[in-house]
Amino acid sequence: MEIWRLPISASQRGKLISSGYTSLSSLSSISSSDLARELKVSESEAMNILKVASHSRGSETSNASCSIVEGAQSAWDMLHDEESLMHITTSSADLDNILGGGIHCKEVTEIGWSSLSLIVNSVLKYKLTTAFSSESIIFMLIGGVPGIGKTQLGIQIAVNVQIPNDFGGLGGKAIYIDTEGSFMVERAFQIAEACIEDMSEYNRFLRKDFQECKIKMLPQDILENIFYFRICSYTEQIALINYLDKFLSEHKDVKVIVVDSVTFHFRQDFDDMALRTRVLSGMALKLMNLAKRFSLAVVLLNQVTTKHTEASFQLALALGDSWSHTCTNRIVLYWNGNERYAYIDKSPSLRSASAAYSVTARGIRNSSSSCKRIKMM
Amino acid sequence: MANKLISEIPLPKSIANVFSARNISTAKDALSLTEFELMELLDVGLTEVRSALSQISEIVAPPYQTALSLMEQRFQNEHLGGHFPTGLKGLDAALCGGIPFGVLTELVGPAGIGKTQFCLKLSLLASLPTNYGGLDGRVIYIDVESKFSSRRLLEIGLRSFPEIFQMKEMAQEMAGRILVLRPTSLAEFTQSLEQIKVLLLQNQVKMLVIDSMAALVSGEHEQGARRQQTLSWHISFIKSLAEFSRIPVVVTNQVRSRNHDDASRYSFQVQSRDGAIETPMQYDSHLVAALGIQWAHAVTTRLVLEAKSGERFIKVAKSPISPPLAFPFHITSSGISLLSDDGKEVMGPEINAIHCQGHNEIINFGMEGLH
Amino acid sequence: MARLANLETEYPVLDSTVRNFCASHGIFSVEDFLIHDLYMLAAFAEQNDSSERLKEGIAQVLSIIDDMHQPWLNGMELLEDAKRNKHVFPTGIQGIDLLLGDGIHVGQLTELVGPSSSGKTQVCLRTASNVARNHMVLYLDTGNSFSPQRIAYFLGKTISPSSAQAKNQFLQKVMSNISCHSVFDIFAMFDVLHQLESYLRCQDGRGGCQMRLLIVDSISSLISPVLGSSSTLGVINSKLMDTGRALMTSAGYLLKKLAHQHNLAVLIINHTVGGEGGSSKPALGDSWKCIPHSRLFLSCDRGSNTYNVSILRHPSMASGKAARFVI
Hints:
heterotrimer; A: alpha/beta; DNA polymerase, domain 1; Rossmann fold; nine-stranded mixed beta sheet; three-stranded antiparallel beta sheet; 12 helices; 36% helix; disordered C terminus; B: alpha/beta; two-stranded antiparallel ribbon; 16 helices; elongated
């Protein structure tokens, strides 16, 4: 019965069915007043039903043209759109490289992140075959997995999205959604300062003439363009993501949303796991929708937790299987020897690869170039 | 905001009535359901549900701040730009001024290394008047293992700030500012947290010290998932306390030994994709922090105190600001002090390792020094 | 099914007398007619004053019903249809094509099940790029995972090195055949599928490049939000579950109908969720299980970058057969 597919209320649907309207075509030629009389509903309600039905049926005339479905885009057009997309750099050329960036201009290298990226910390799929007591689980995770640099990368991205177009950046603004309270404004200031320094150096490199092209940007300006939301419960998180729709249509220059960390509140105060899964997947779909409609990047940071399976424990991303499907790209950060590594664990377009990076006083940088860390102060 | 009543939100009358008829009274109730569930439950169409949800969301969603206003506000309202100096110059420089306000700072290390000494010193400092580098306010010291010693506290005070502590009334006042709580169980601790919240709201308390968190949790014989759950409640509660009152919170964590098995099998390295296992770094110690990964995610700054080849080091193991540095320190009668203000940079995950070599001698020596 | 009231213009016999009589028996549409006992109805009609008219009306409706159902086909005709229209599209991935005979079947729903990053989307993209050489493809995307770059890469691998311009032309030709549409809830998917249906109806009369492949990546992220759980909502819940189920079945039915009537191959993706005891199971459960014609389980070998595929269900093949492939 086609009527089931209409997004109308259950009672309206019941009335339609009991008076014999079961197909969309049966609603095509009836006037709203007739329908209102027959269903014994108000005329405005009947009009509403007809509107929904005709929307669902689609305008038959437009189909004579070449596009299959209204709103669909051909892969060829999408390829061109994607190639013209601007990229946000991570400030580490190696990292940018595995993320599909191509253009190297000193430190300002770009990567495309038009889709949802899930950046997670650490030791994914680390399986222990022997049985563990739950006590020992708590210990094996010590050793740097927290503190690998998720928040740093988040802040770096929020700063780098603002690199102006002249420097190969997006010149956009950033939304930073902080669920854990780990955003450090002093750190953001440092990173912004370093970013501006890099830009002016790049400027000198590019124009070798004497004309001193001073960058007019100040770290304060960069901080000004980071919209910071502090979330204290999962309800607020859902509400905020609903509200972002409106916020973004008022702030069209926002080009990245960073959520640090997306799963924190969902791991507590939720008894019904099935409900949690549904709410989360609903939220993920909304974020996807935002990413698509406003063509912005959504970067989610996630933690690593331990997972209890029958006879073994394994480190896994927080929130488990169903959530792991929702992200388009997933990057895992882990230690390898003395270096921090990022690994592309899942991506529809990029090949699996890993790259070393480091966290310096100036932010995220290439591993090799960063050997000489500038000591602070 | 999450418990905002739907009746207080200016929704169209018809929809508001449906919400109340279905017993969906708070924003939390409404937002915990999916759009489809609401459609069925309220018996309205998708468009109505969407518009109602967006109205509710707009009110419930917290307001934004730009990072700039956040920074300006911090600098205006907060003494010392939101960092509390520990008096250890090198460490303060690395941490951009000291222990950050509003977030958790953790001290982790083997027994007797000086965690409590550090805590005593910090609480003393916080109670001092501002012109001596203090916060001029009360300190709440949650002492789980009954290690707090007021004699030692006064001794440190006398040695470090003789000009204050030689005056008897001043010394009394300073020491009086430090409130010590001794909860014996996790339940009691939970209760005292609630009380602390009230005190914090009255804005008199300038620092919170919990020594030690691990002793509290491991005192309870709960296992696995259950234990993680209670812990996660405490984590988020303490974090929110820190954040809303904007005070520094210092928490200590113990260590426990790691089995040989774990140590060799568990190197915190990801297994490389081609199947081969990276040669794990073999640590000479087998110590790990007593509270697990969830806790480790929650703390913003982690300082590891360790002993290595006869020397004690304090290491900045996790910090959003500082590079991984290690400072040698010792404990004297005037408390903890650094031997050198130049930190040595530590590469890789070594920063998180907790060593306890030749530590016993130091302790003995240290104890002698105290008496 | 048509309402009786709408039929009067075409069949004047069904005038208000007949309709009132029908309405008094709770019959409003042709569909209602089918579930009524015709003999009883005829008997009631006898007693009526205008029994002749009524009988005429009933006969008319019965003949409408006769016209409406799909024509009877015997085995020979079905075979003929299968030979003519129900082709098999190779996916372009050797392992899978060998396993499935030649590829995925037109007129059938093929479902890919697997954990996260097990190659499901890659198989879809590869198949799309392969089919798009000669036919049109529609890709419904719920996770922004459609990657034109990847398709260009797949296509670039298959053509022999020629001039850059020829290559570009080829890419443009093939990639213009693939349309992608983002859908983020199940009702949006129905809208798109209804539009597609009317497009396909026009297409069948036309020549030229025809749309032959529909991909839904992934169906489970659309359907799982509407499937309620058993504990949240108490009494209302059973009703809710019914509506969710009805939407799910309706989606399956619509996909199958499109596949069969318009000779489409339909490829859908289903996720896995953690089941009891740590094992994973397909996200859409038992009531969805019987909807797709064939079901393939994908998994990824972390070490070697090869993927495993095994048949969970197939109309013409033993289940349990497995193969490996590389992308």
